[in-house]
Each structure stands twice: as structure tokens, then as C-alpha cells.
Amino acid sequence: MTPPLSLRSLANRQDVGIAGRDQLGISDRLRGKAHPTRYTSTSRLFSVWACLLLACGISFGQSSSGSADTEWRNYGHDPGGTRFSPLKQINNTNVQQLQRAWTYEVARTPNSGIEAFESTPLMLEGVLYFTTQTSLAIAVDAETGKELWIFDPFPGESGTRRPVPNRGAAYWEGHSPVPCGGEEHKLDKRLFYVTLDARLFALDPRTGKPCKGFGDGGAINLRVGVADKWPKERYDSTSPPTIYKDLVITGSEVQEIPSKGPSGDVRAFDVRTGKPVWRFHTVPRPGELGHNTWEGDSWEDRSGTNVWSIMTVDDERGMIFLPIGSPSYDFYGADRKGQGLFGNSLVALNAATGELLWYYQMVHHDIWDYDVSALANLITVRREGREILAVAQVTKQAAAARQDFRDA
């Protein structure tokens, strides 16, 4: 008999932490005064719920130990996507005392449609960082809700702005000859996010100003090299980029129809300069592993097969895991017969070079839009007396795939 699994990364999850919720309404009384721009259209509200200070003694500042574990520095808390915080201030004995501490109105510019607020805030050194569906990046004081800064990538632009889901930003810190915030700062800190027109920005998290040495004045155009032949077709990114050491790694959101269009390739850029470092072809080119899974020339200019969700990193082993979506068109496969790698696959790469390590395809020749759409989780499985380092991937089919790190 096979013994039951013990998922150690899921153990003792009694902490609740901070939760965000969309609401309709306005709460100007709690708005900060730091930025002169205000948007008067109907707005989403971002709410932080916390125990009453008298009841629980909650503080959103950095812990005395300075440990990154006590903050929320990644979309899934840590690069491995465990979504687990070791904080114990909020637990099953006081969670019922949670009350609203403050409300922040997520400013929205006029737009032609409705998109939900989907950003997962980062929390670093007592500051929350999040993005909006109209590509604003915002920083607020986590304890008071006071607005610290707003960055608008379309300054002075008026009129309609197309809303696109934006799930947040990524944070990097390290040492640079010229730090983003100036030479007076010993530690270079950068906040990365992608706008609805496919620009990857590097911002100074202290001020919200672009890092001038990154790309062209603080941004690079992600359309270049993957959408040159398709200037009118969709190419952007709805999820935060991923950080590995000194690389910022990007996925994309591309069209589902027609079948031909911008590439869904995954790319890595230098965090300081924005220069390209590597590129992984999600639809293999001639001579690459998996190219023979596409009949004839059906691979050529194939759109889709993109990473629109969040990637997972194993810093210790230098691996990155890509949850790849289905090829375009999602519901029609007669023009792309074959297995269609690396569509609908979890793909492991060498994070430093982009070299393919292994893949696991969830659906062969997908015609049901069964994208691999969730953040993979790095876990330790205890089985038959031994511990196995594994990656778990939840799918749209209400099933979970579990692979050994080494070879899937």
C-alpha cells in the first residue's frame, strides 16, 4: 500500500495575513495627499483587513529580524510559490476580531470597458506596491493606507484607455555601479511591471520614478522581436514578470484568434540595463526538440503557446518553471495537427541560460483552451520513507500534476 503524502510546505498554515477585496464606492477621507492627480470616475476600492491594534497589536513594518519571510516580496510570497507566511500575529484564536483598518480607492482613468482589479500587492518595509487595470503603479503605506506615489506610464494622455488585467509587479534588489535611486543609495532596488502597451518598466520603489539606465529612459518595448510582423495584433502581459538573480523574465498575453500572430516566447533581460539575455521558443524551431510535433509548416508564426500566468523559480537549483497555454486558435486544431509542443505544458528551464531541462505536457493537441494557468508550487513530498523535491501544478481539468524536480 502506498503511504499517504505529507506536503511539508502546507504544514501549520494557521496565519491569515492581509487580504484584498474589490468594492464599489469612494472613501476620499482615507486617501493620501501625496499625488496631485485624481480620477473622478467610478472606482474600485482596495481594502486591507487587520485586527484592531488594541486587540492584536498588529504592525505592518519590517520585522526586527529583517527577514524577507515576514514580508510579501513575490506574487506567491516566495519564488517557489508556496503562498505561506510564517507570521503568527493573526491566527485562529483572533481572526474573528478582524476589522477594516483602511480603504484605498484604486484610481481608474476613463475606459471603454470593465476589468476587475486583479493585482496581488507586494509588501516590503511597510509599503504595499500594486498595479491597476489601466497600467498605473501605486505605493501606499501598509499601516495607514496613505498614498506614497502613483506612476502613470501615459502622462498627459486624455480620453479612453483600454483596460487590461494587471496582476502586479516584481521586486529586485542588489548592487549596481549606479543604483536606480542614485549613488547615495548603497542598495539598488527596482520594481518591474508591464503596461497595457507592452512596455516593461523598472521603477524606483522609493519614489515611483523610472530607472533611467534601464532600456530607453526606464522601459523596454516587449513587442520588439516577437510582434514586429503584427503591429495591430494583441501583445501585452497581464501577470508580473519573474526575477531570477540579475534577470527579469517575461511572459505575455497574445491573441487567441487568428492562429497566426505575435510569438509567445519567454524572454530574459538584464535587470540593470534591459538588454536581452536569453529567449525560449515555446513553439520549437527547426532543429529544436519538439519541432517534429507540428505537422508541416503549422509551427510558423503560430501565436498562443504563451505564459500569461505566473512563473515559479527554484533559486537554489537555478530552475524556472513555465506554465504554458494552448496554441492559437484554442478551439480549432485542423491547421496544427500533431502533439503541439510546448503547448499546455509545464516546462522547466535553466533560469540563467533558458536551456530546456524537461517538460510535461498536460494536454496533447488541445482544442478546449486547457491552458496551464496556475502558478506552480515547489513542495517536498514524503513517500516511502524518503523526501522528494517536487513541483505541483494545478490544471483547468481539476487535476494536479506532480513531478520530481530532476526529470519530471
Summarize the structure.
This protein has 408 residues and is mainly β. The chain contains one helix and 25 strands.
What does this structure look like?
- With 408 residues, the protein is an all-beta fold.
- The radius of gyration is 22 Å and the shape is globular.
- The two termini are 23 Å apart.
- It is 1% helix and 30% strand.
- The strands form seven sheets. The protein has a four-stranded antiparallel sheet with strand order 1-23-24-25, with no helix packed on it. The protein has a four-stranded antiparallel sheet with strand order 5-6-7-8, with no helix packed on it.
Task: Summarize this structure as a short list of keywords or feature phrases.
408 residues; mainly beta; four-stranded antiparallel beta sheet; 25 strands
List the helices and strands and how they pair.
Blueprint: E1 6-7, E2 22-24, E3 44-51, H1 53-56, E4 98-106, E5 122-124, E6 127-131, E7 137-141, E8 147-151, E9 170-174, E10 188-194, E11 199-203, E12 219-221, E13 235-236, E14 242-244, E15 247-250, E16 253-254, E17 266-270, E18 276-280, E19 312-314, E20 319-323, E21 345-350, E22 356-361, E23 377-383, E24 386-394, E25 400-404
Antiparallel strand pairs: 1-23, 2-3, 3-4, 5-6, 6-7, 7-8, 9-10, 10-11, 11-12, 13-16, 14-15, 15-17, 17-18, 19-20, 20-21, 21-22, 23-24, 24-25
What gyration radius follows from the Cα positions, in whole Å? 22 Å
* Overall helicity: under 10%
Arrangement of strands in the largest sheet:
1-23-24-25
Mean pLDDT: 83
Rounded to the nearest angstrom, the distance between the terminal CA atoms is: 23 Å
> Shape from CA axes?
globular
Main sheet record: 4 strands, antiparallel
Structural class, please? Answer: mainly beta
pLDDT < 50 runs, ≥5 residues? 1-43, 49-66
